Queue: 4 jobs
Job 1
Amino acid sequence: MHYELYIDSLFFLNFIMNLFLLFLVDRSTLRMASPGRMAAGAAVGAACALLPFLLEGKAIVKLAAGAALGAAGMLCITFRVRSLRMFLKLLERLAICSFGMGGGMLFLIRLFPGLREVLASLPGILGMGAIFLLLFARLRDEPYGEGPCRAVLRRNGRELAVGALIDSGNSLFEPISGKPVCVVGRAVFDGLWEGFREGFRAVPYHSIGKRRGILPAYLLSELRLETGGMEYLFTDVYVAVSDEEISGADSAGAESVNMIINPRLFAERKRGGRGKRQNERRYDTESHDTGKDAIQDNPQG
C-alpha cells in the first residue's frame, strides 16, 4: 500500500497540536512562558516530528528519537528550565496533557465510527484538539500547595536566599493596590534594604494575641520561589517586616523559616499577573475571615 505524505501539512498539524499542549502545560505552571517562546517550542517539536521520515534506520528507533528530541526541545525552549527536577516535572505535565488529549480524540473517533474519516482529517484533528483544549483549560490546578519552599529575594543587584513557608494563614494585602503581602524577619530585611527605602506602605493586620497593628511594607523588585520541583518568578511584591522571629530551625527542620509567603501571589499570577484594586472591606484583616486567614502570632508565623 502506498501513502502520500505532505510535509507541510504534517508540520502544521504537529505545530498546532504542540501549541495546544504547551498552552496547557504553561497554564498549569501559572503562565511562565511568553507566546513567542511557546510558538518557538511548538515549531521545534514539529520539526523533530519530521525526523523519522528524513532519517534512515529502524522505525521504532527513529520514532523514539524524534519524540524524545521534540519533547526536550519544546520544554527547554518554552520554559526557562533551571534544573533536572524542573524538567522532569514539566515533562510529566506534558505527558499527562498529551495522553489525555490523544485518548480523548481516540474515544471520539470510536464513539462516532460514521465520522471516522472526517475526524481523522486535518481539520477534524485540529477541531478535536481545540475542543479538548477548552475543556482541559477549565480544570483548576493548584501546583504550589502549602508548606516549606525556598525563596530568593532580589533588590538593586543584591540577592538573598532564605527558607520560606507558603501559608494560607497569611491574608495580608496592601490596602491601596490590593496586592498580597509577604512577611520577612528583621534580619532578612536589613540584609537587602539599605539607605533610602522606596515604596513604603502601611499594612494593617489582626492576629491572635494582638487586637490590631500596623506592619511597614516595602516593594521588592523580584521574588523567586522554588517549590515542588518548579520555579516561579514574581515582580514588584510587597514585603512586610516583622520585628519578631518568624520561625526557628527547630520548627522548620534543617532550615529555619525566615519568610511567610502569601499564597494569593499564585492566584494573582494565574489571573494574568495584574494587580487589581479590590474593595477594602474584602481585604479587611478584621473581617469574619480573620480567624481562618489572619496571620497568627506564634512561632510558626
Job 2
Amino acid sequence: MSWARIMTPLSGGEGDKAAVKAAALLAEPFGAELACVYTPADVADVMPWMGEGFLGGVQSTALESLKEAAAAGETKARAAVAACAYPKANFIALQTPVWAGLSAESRLSDVVVFTNDPPRGRGPLAEAFQQMVADEQRPVLIAREGFKTGGVVAVAWDGGKEASRAARLAMPLLEKASRVVILAAPKASSRSFDPARLQAYYAARGIASDVDILPDTGDAAPLLLYATKKADADVLVAGAFGHPRLQEFIFGGTTRSLLAADQPSLFLSH
C-alpha cells in the first residue's frame, strides 16, 4: 500500500509553515503529491445574516474587509508553500463555496494533515478539522513537535469499527515504521476483543508488530498515552469519536483526551 496525495488546509496564519513542513515530511517517503489548500473565511457564509440591503453601508464595508483579508491570507499561505523545499507541493486557493471545495479536495486525498491548534478548537481551521474527521470521515494526521515518519508507531486497538478503520488506513505509515506496537486495554473496554487478530492481520500483509496488553481499568486515554510514551512511539493510531459526538462533547471521551495531550502525533479516523 502507499499514499499518493497528502493534503493540508492552510489559513494564511502563522501555523501554515509548520503544517506544510509536517505534511511534506509525511508525503516524502511515498513520493506523494502535497496539496496545500488555502481555506479562507467564506463570504457566502456571512451574507444570510446581513439580510436585505446588505450591499449598503456597513455591510458592504464588511464584505470588502473579508475579501481583503482573504487576499492577504492567500499571499501568506503561498509564501509558506514557496518556502517548502518539497518538489511535489501544489498550492490550491479555494473559492466560494469554500466548504464544498474543501470536501472535494479531501475526498481525493489519502490523509489530511493538521497541526495542534485546529483539533483543539483553536484558530480559523478548527471547523475544517471537524469537517474532515466527523463529516467527511477522512483520516487525519495531527502533527506535533518532533513529528517524523520511520519511527515507532503505536496502534490503539479495541476491536471496534473506528479502531479497525484507523488501523487499516494507517498501513502505509506502519510499513515505513521501525517498530509497530498494538496497544490493547481490555479491562478499560466493554467490548470483547483479541489483539492477536490484528497482529495476524498485519503479519499477513508483511507488517511485524508487538502486542502490549494494558492491565488497568478506567479511562482508556491515560493508559494509551502512558503505553505510547513507554514504547517511545512517535505516532499513535486511533479511532476517533467512537461514541455519538454530542455524548463525547459532554463526557469528554477518549478522543478529546488524546487531542488535549501534547504528545504523541496522532493518526485518527472516524
Job 3
Amino acid sequence: MTTITTRRFLQTTGLLFAGVLLAACGKKEPEAAAPAAAAPAEAASVAAAPPPAKVYMVGTDAAYAPFESQNEKGEIVGLTIDVVTAVAQKAGIEVKFVNTPWEGIFNSLAQGDRDLLASSITITDERKQTMDFTNPYFDAYQLIAVKATSKVTKFDDLKKLKVGVQTGTTGDEAVTKQQGKNSANIKRFESTPLALKELEAGGVDAVVADNGVVVNYVTNNPGAKFKTVSDKAFAPEQYGFAVKKGNTELLEKLNKGLADIKADGTYDQIYAKYFGAAPAAPATAASK
C-alpha cells in the first residue's frame, strides 16, 4: 500500500509541477505581443507626416525676350521669370515654369493644366470675364516698327499697309479695329520676333507690338535697320499674372508677394538688370 501511495503521490506531484510550468509559460505571452502593440503608434507617426508641398505650374510663352525666352541651355529666363520667382519666395510657394504656346495658353489655365500664367498678359475687361488677375506689375503701350526708310509717322498711316502682329495680342486687336476683321493686309504670326523677321524680309510694311519687345529686338538686331514710331492713339495698358477664376487663395498670395518685392527694392533690381536703370513711375515695358 505504501508503494502504491508513493507512486500516486509522485504522479500527482508531477502533474501539478507540469501544470505550474505551463501556467508560468502562459503568463509570458502578453509580453511577446508587446511589439505588435507598437504598430498603431508607428502608423500614427507615418500618418502625421506633412504632405509634400504643392508645386504651382506657371504657363509662359517663352518667345518674348527680354521678358520670357529660352537661353542656349533651353532654360526659361527673363524679367517676368525673375519677378515671378521673387514673388513666389515672398509668398512661400514653389513654382515651376512650363513653356506654353500663346495660342493655347488661356485654355491651359481654364482646364487646370496650369495654376497661373505669367507671360506679359495685358489685363483687359474681356479677359477678366474668364480669369482673375493680380495687381498690375507693368505699364505698357504699343509701338510701331518700320524700316528706317519708311515714311510712317503715326498709327493712321498703317490703314492701307501690310501690318504684322502676333496673334491674339493687343497689337492684333488694335490693327484689327483699324483695318477691319477680314482685312487681307493683317499678317498674323505665332510670335512678335517672327513678325519682325517678316518686316526685315519685306513681307510686311510695319509691325505693331509691345514696346519692350520691339525695342529689345531693334537694339539687338542693328543690321535690320529698323526705326520705331510711337503714337498717343494707343491706349495705355497694364498686365499681371492670371489665375483661374475664383482662385482667391493663390491670388492673395501673389498680390502680397508682389507688394513685398516692390517695397524692399527687389523689383527695381530686377528691372535694372534688364533695362539698366530702375523703372520710372509708372514702369514702362511690354505686354500682350
Job 4
Amino acid sequence: MVDALVTLIVVLACLGALGVLAAARVVKQYERGVVFRLGRLRSDIRGPGFTMIAPFVDRLQKVNMQIVTMPVPAQEGITRDNVTVRVDAVVYFKVVDAAEALVAVEDYRFAVSQMAQTSLRSIIGKSDLDDLLSNREKLNQGLELMIDSPAVGWGVHIDRVEIKDVSLPETMKRSMARQAEADRERRARVINADAELQASKKLAEAASQMADTPSALQLRLLQTVMAVAAEKNSTLVLPIPVELLRFLEKGQQEIPAAARTEGGAPAAAPEREAAPARPTQPAQPARQAMPTLTEREPEPHSVER
C-alpha cells in the first residue's frame, strides 16, 4: 500500500513537472509574446521575462520588436525625362504592435518588402534624373511616406528609407562626363577672360603713369630684357628707342642754328617748337635752314631798253 502511494506521488510529481515545463515560456528583452487561446487572441501581451501559459490550450508566438534592416532589390524604371535607371534602396522598420503584426497581415516582412519595391518604382517614374542624383533627401521622405501609410495598419512603423545606388547606362555616363567637361571649360574661359580684363585695367593705369615719365618706361624695358636674358636660351632683338631718335633729330636741328650764330648772322626769331616725330616713322635728318631774305645776295639783272 505504501509502495503504491509512493508510486502515485512520484507519477503526479512527474506529471506536474512536465506540465510546468510545457507551460513555462521565456520571452527575451527585445521580444513580445502574443497568446492565442484555442485560436482566439488574448488581450494581454506578455512582456520580457518568465511567463506561464495553459499547456495544450494556449499558444504563444514571439514577435521581434527590434529595428529590421531590409534591402530592397534593385528596380529598373524610366524617369520622367525618359532615362532608364536602376535604383536600389534599404528600408529600416520595426513592429510597434505585436498583435496587429500577427493578425492584420500574414507576413509583415514580405508585405513591407513588396510595398517598398512598388513604391520605389513609382518614385522613379515621378522623378527626374537630376533629382535621383542630387535631391535624394526629398525622395527618401516621399518614399518613406508611401511605405508607411499602409504599414500603419499592420502594426509596423517605417523608421527610415534610403536610396543606396543609382545605376546609369554607359551612354548616359559618357554624356554626363562630356557635359561636366564642357561646363568646367566654360568656367575656365570665364575666369581667364576676367583675369585678362583686370590685367588690362592695371596695364592701362601703369601706361598712364609712365606716359608722364618716359624714363620709367625705359627702366621697365630694361627690367623685361633682364628677365628674358636670365633664361639664356633665346636671341633677343631690341628695337631702337623712340626717345633716342627724337634726341638725334633735335641735335641735328640745333647744329645749323649754332653755326649761324658763330658766323655773326643775326639770331633768328624763336622758332616754334618742332612737333615730336611719330614713333612709327623712321627718323629723317633735319633739313638745313633756308636763308632769309636779308641773307640772300642780290642777283644781277640787266634792263633791256
